[in-house]
Design brief:
It is built from four helices and five strands. The chain is an alpha+beta fold. The N and C termini lie far apart (89 Å).
């Protein structure tokens, strides 16, 4: 039998049939199947042996009955191998991050379930934290009010000195500047504590929704939900 049988366009099936017919007389133990490949001109060829120059180009193996049994992919280039390596590394890193996230979620869920038996327990804890911060804010506001009164007195003294034709005393200027800095510092402190309260509300709203989902069985401990309901949509948002 010839080493290869050229199969072009619509004649390919006939040549393949002839090739199979030719090898049918070969003892079963000697038959290795028909191999088909695409030559340099883009024409499909078939034969009992794969030419060495096409060994890296990929081919198909046809059984004695004419059924395709194997597809050998073409050897990949260095660039393709490098890209495959990069994609594999990315996939492995994503899997690692997913495992870590699941472990962290499980730990958070266990703490949540141990800490809060009911939704009311969670809301009470939230309100307690907010109340502690609110008391600090009130204290800072009282101090600001006193400092503002002091500042009014100092600026009044400075105005009197100016009206009398004198320059404002240096020590008075320093006292005024110091009081203003302290007022600014306390106002910044108050703003920061308000931000803390907002963060607590958002965190507890998220915890509330997670607790509900765990209690209802909608999610299992450690299950990572791709997209949680935004805290603003919480039915308890109006309880603050």
């Amino acid at each position: 039998m010839k080493n290869s049988v050229t199969a072009r366009s619509c004649l390919h099936g006939s040549f393949l049939a002839l090739a199979l017919l030719a090898v049918s007389a070969t003892p079963p133990t000697a038959f290795a199947g028909i191999k088909c490949w695409t030559n340099k001109e883009g024409v499909r060829e078939c034969g009992d042996r794969l030419p060495p120059e096409y060994a890296q180009k990929g081919h198909e193996q046809i059984s004695e009955s004419g059924i395709r049994v194997t597809v050998v992919e073409a050897a990949r280039s260095a660039e393709e191998l490098e890209e495959a390596k990069r994609l594999a590394a990315v996939k492995a890193e994503q899997a690692r991050i997913a495992r870590i996230r699941a472990a962290e979620q499980l730990a958070d869920d266990q703490v949540l379930l141990r800490t809060f038996t009911t939704e009311e327990d969670l809301l009470l804890a939230r309100d307690g934290k907010l109340a502690v911060i609110e008391s600090r804010i009130k204290l800072a506001q009282n101090r600001v009010a006193k400092m503002e009164t002091n500042l009014e007195q100092l600026t009044s003294q400075a105005a009197q000195q100016e009206r009398s034709g004198r320059s404002v005393a240096k020590n008075l200027q320093e006292r005024i500047a110091k009081v203003r800095r302290r007022i600014d510092s306390h106002l910044t402190y108050i703003d920061d504590r308000r931000d803390d309260q907002d963060g607590i509300r958002k965190q507890f709203d998220a915890d509330l929704q997670r607790l509900r989902a765990l209690k209802s069985g909608d999610v299992q401990p450690g299950e990572v939900v791709a997209e949680e309901t935004p805290p603003e949509a919480s039915p308890q948002a109006g309880l603050e």
